[in-house]
């Protein structure tokens, strides 16, 4: 399920560098984290939904790749994003 427009605007406001910033790594990571949390809640209820589980693994992999890229390109921003989203620990 795609991210609601209002929720996406909040993520852009929090993590974006300008009001129309939807493509930066920080915003993409935040959006993926939001979708990952929603899918995780869905899978707690529907344990045998294997197609959603596969989709979740793909989202986690894409987020991991973006985090790796951000850590190489901008380590300070990486630390900020990881702390604000509560990742890694």
**Radius of gyration from the alpha-carbon trace, in angstroms:** 14 Å
- Mean pLDDT figure: 93
Broad shape? globular
Helix fraction? over 70%
As residue ranges, the low-confidence spans are: none
Explain the overall architecture.
- The protein is an all-alpha fold and 89 residues long.
- Helices cover 75% and strands 0% of the residues.
- It has helices at 5-15, 25-45, 50-73, 75-85.
- Helix 2 runs antiparallel to helix 3 (50-73) and helix 3 packs antiparallel against helix 4.
- The longest helix has 24 residues, at 50-73.
- The protein is globular and about 40 Å long.
- The mean pLDDT is 93.
List the helices and strands and how they pair.
Blueprint: H1 5-15, H2 25-45, H3 50-73, H4 75-85
Helix pairs in contact: 1-2, 2-3, 2-4, 3-4
Compose a concise summary of this entry.
The chain has 4 helices and no strands.
């Amino acid at each position: 399920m795609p991210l609601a427009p209002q929720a996406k605007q909040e993520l852009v406001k929090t993590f974006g560098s300008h009001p129309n910033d939807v493509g930066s790594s920080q915003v993409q990571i935040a959006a993926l984290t939001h979708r990952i949390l929603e899918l995780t809640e869905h899978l707690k209820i529907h344990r045998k939904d294997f197609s959603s589980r596969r989709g979740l693994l793909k989202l986690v992999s894409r987020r991991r790749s973006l985090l790796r890229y951000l850590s190489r390109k901008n380590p300070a921003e990486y630390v900020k994003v990881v702390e604000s989203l509560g990742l890694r620990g």
